[in-house]
Amino acid sequence: MKHWKDKADFKEEVYRWAKKLELNVQALALRPMSNKWASCSTKGNLNFNDELLSIDKEIGIYVIVHELLHFHYPNHGPVWKSMMAHYLGDYEAIEMKLKNHSSVALKTSE
Hints:
Elements: H1 7-20, E1 27-31, E2 38-40, E3 45-49, H2 57-69, H3 78-88, H4 91-108
Parallel strand pairs: 1-3
Antiparallel strand pairs: 2-3
Helix pairs in contact: 1-2, 2-3
C-alpha cells in the first residue's frame, strides 16, 4: 500500500489529473469533512476530506478522478461510469475498498 507524503503530494496529483481531464481548478482544499470524501462546485472549487491523506493512495486517486469527472458528468450515469473505467480500469474494486474503509472507520468510532 502506498500513502501520500503530505498535502502537497495529494494536491499535485489533483492538478495532474485536472490537466489530463482538461479542467481548470479554481480552488483546492483538504479539510475535515464529516460525511463525505469530496465535493466540487460549478465554479471549479474542490474540497477533499483530509482523511484521504492517511489511506491508500489508490483510493485517493479514485476519489480525485471521481470528483473531477463530475465537472463534465454531474451524475453517476452510464457515461460517467464508462469514463471511470477508461481512466481507472476496474474502478468498482477500488470503490469497494473505499466503502470497506468507511465501514471499518464507522465501526471503530462507535
